[in-house]
Design brief:
The complex is a heterodimer. Chain A is an all-beta fold. Chain A has no helices and eleven strands. In chain A, 0% of the residues lie in helices and 53% in strands. Chain A is globular. Classes of the chains: A mainly beta, B mainly beta.
């Protein structure tokens, strides 16, 4: 059974840092691209970042580029998001999600974790 | 960035109704369009990918269509468990933007 379990969320002051983790199990983690998606309280979904299976293709949404760093450790079946210079608008539930690519080339997110809550407040 | 616009933002319907949600992209995304369902307090669940391919385990009452800029999600006969929020997402280019969501409520 595929499982994604996020951790590392919490309350942090503006300007502070957090490192989120996503522990994967039930599949060959190294073979899949992975993503972080966030959802502010009462709001919609926002894609944050993705990393390819080899770790050589990385993308960010503009609002976090230069502040957040996505990484992976295939030996530990884990995905990470280092979050620096946090702002109030980064407050959200952060999900990790697995990517798959259809035969047509279309990418989709087929498994999601339950999320870890990040609150940025003084 | 590609903007995704869903309509309506909310919808009231009854069990057994046929409902359609539409999603429009600000530029062509060919068929790189996914649909997700989110029940309050739960993680999103993939329903359809590549505009019209049903994810394994998803009931056949869900269907999707469209290409280019205009897409739709149809639920042929609403069941009680379908009352949720639905999101479209484009993966044609990064950022992989989502629509703002369509909240489906019980009439």
């Amino acid at each position: 059974e595929v499982q994604l379990v996020e951790s590392g969320g919490g309350l942090v002051k503006p300007g502070g840092s957090l490192r989120l983790s996503c522990a994967a199990s039930g599949f060959t983690f190294s073979a899949y691209s992975m993503n972080w998606v966030r959802q502010a309280p009462g709001k919609g979904l926002e894609w944050v970042s993705s990393i390819s299976n080899a770790g050589n293709y990385i993308h960010y949404v503009d609002s976090v580029r230069g502040r957040f760093t996505i990484s992976r450790d295939d030996a530990k079946d884990s995905l990470y998001l280092q979050m620096n210079s946090l702002r109030a608008e980064d407050t959200a539930l952060y999900y990790c999600a697995r990517s798959r690519t259809a035969y047509s080339g279309s990418i989709y997110f087929d498994y999601w974790g339950q999320g870890t809550l990040v609150t940025v407040s003084s | 960035d590609i903007q995704m616009t869903q309509s309506p933002s909310s919808l009231s319907a009854s069990v057994g109704d046929r409902v359609t949600v539409t999603c429009r992209a600000s530029q062509s995304i060919t068929s790189y369009l996914n649909w997700y369902q989110q029940i309050p307090g739960k993680a999103p669940r993939l329903l359809l990918y590549a505009a019209s391919t049903l994810q394994s385990g998803v009931p056949s009452r869900f269907s999707g269509s469209g290409s280019g800029t205009d897409f739709s999600l149809t639920i042929s006969s609403l069941q009680p468990e379908d009352f949720a929020t639905y999101y479209c997402q484009q993966t044609y280019s990064t950022p992989h933007t989502f629509g703002q969501g369509t909240r489906l409520e019980i009439k």
